[in-house]
Design brief:
Helix content is about 45%, strand content about 20%. Strand 5, helix 7 and strand 6 (about 195-200) form a beta-alpha-beta unit. The protein has about 325 residues and is of the alpha/beta class. The protein starts with a helix and ends with a helix. It is globular. Helix 2 runs antiparallel to helix 11. Strands 1, 2, 3, 4, 5, 6, 7, 8 and 9 form a nine-stranded mixed sheet that branches. The chain has one domain: D-Maltodextrin-Binding Protein, domain 2, CATH 3.40.190.170.
């Protein structure tokens, strides 16, 4: 192959999707073409995650003077959670906003986002994720998963939306509940006496309508935006998990970006995350009101027996996480 053809092939195979970045070996892509970051998420256009994506786009493009363009693909257009996260390595997207707990197949530290009743309250959650411990956790999890993880935001406390009412563990026993496809979620609900069924979120509404599952658990606004209020007439304040969303990028891809672009992207993610956390917090009362307006009953069970039933879960089934759990619980 002539040398110029070999060089052209090399640039085509290792270049970033839309140029303008520094490539391996110091070769520069065409400076007049913007870098395009395709951002994927699975949530509806009315969901706070879409607002977060839009804020990120605005900030990245502003901070880079238009050198970077962000294209948003929401509502599962590029696939379900598993598919869009896999897409970071396959090159079908460059940025994903998803729960920290969704990457357990890449790093077991992700399971910390799924530990039941670990956070005392919202203030405790904020102190962990906005403090040094949260930064250390994202750095270590990123190293293990080969991802750049940044911009943690409050996803909302998880509740249970159900076609069947329950107020205690006796009434919950045998409940067929959809859970994310991770061991922590499965073992949590098994410990509570339910029958957990891993299922993609995009399949839950159909599963509830067909009776494959009786219930599911997620933050109220996410559940509402997936249309679940049409089927679930009980919103049960199990408040069992305080979850964080994070921005995810493939580490190798991120490191190929110019240093100033890397800085701009992370800064934009952090700022968008703070804005979204506030948006979700300010809207929590309204989100519950949407459920009551849709005909749902808000149920507040006594949670002491729920906490007791799951108290030994980490030490028994996930001992490698014990030190982290203790560090998180110790944050004041």
């Amino acid at each position: 192959m002539p040398k110029f053809m070999w060089l052209a092939a090399l640039l085509g195979s290792v270049g970033l999707a839309a140029g303008g970045a520094v490539l391996p070996g110091g070769v520069a892509a065409a400076a007049d073409k913007p870098i395009v970051l395709r951002l994927a998420h699975i949530n509806a256009a009315s969901d706070p995650k879409q607002k977060e994506a839009e804020k990120f786009k605005e900030l990245v493009e502003s901070k880079t003077g238009g050198r970077v363009k962000v294209e948003i693909y929401g509502a599962g257009v590029l696939g379900d959670v598993r598919e869009i996260i896999e897409g970071l390595q396959l090159g079908t997207d460059e940025v994903v906003i998803e729960g920290f707990g969704t990457i357990a197949s890449y790093t077991k530290l992700s399971l910390l986002d799924l530990v039941p009743f670990m956070f005392r309250d919202r203030a405790h959650f904020d102190k962990v994720w906005e403090g040094e411990l949260g930064k250390k956790l994202l750095a270590e999890a990123g190293s293990q998963s080969k991802m750049k993880l940044f911009g943690p935001s409050y996803r909302g406390v998880r509740v249970t939306t159900s076609t069947k009412r329950f107020t205690n563990l006796k009434e919950l026993k045998g409940l067929k509940i959809r859970v994310p496809a991770d061991d922590m979620s499965v073992k949590t609900w098994q410990a509570l006496g339910a029958t957990p069924t891993p299922m993609a979120m995009t399949e839950v509404l159909t599963g509830l309508q067909q009776g494959t599952v009786d219930a599911q658990e997620n933050p109220p606004i996410l559940s509402y935006n997936f249309g679940l209020a049409d089927v679930c007439k009980n919103l049960i304040r199990t408040d069992h998990r305080w979850s964080a969303d994070v921005f995810m990028m493939d580490q190798a891809y991120f490191e190929k970006l110019p240093k100033d672009v890397q800085t701009a992207v992370v800064e934009a993610g952090e700022e968008a995350a703070r804005a979204t956390s506030k948006l979700i917090t300010d809207g929590e009362g309204e989100n519950l009101k949407k459920w009551t307006q849709a005909g749902a009953t808000i149920v507040t069970p006594q949670l002491d027996e729920f906490r007791a039933a799951t108290a030994g879960l980490v030490k028994t089934s996930f001992p490698a996480l014990s030190d982290w759990v203790e560090k998180i619980k110790a944050v004041q």
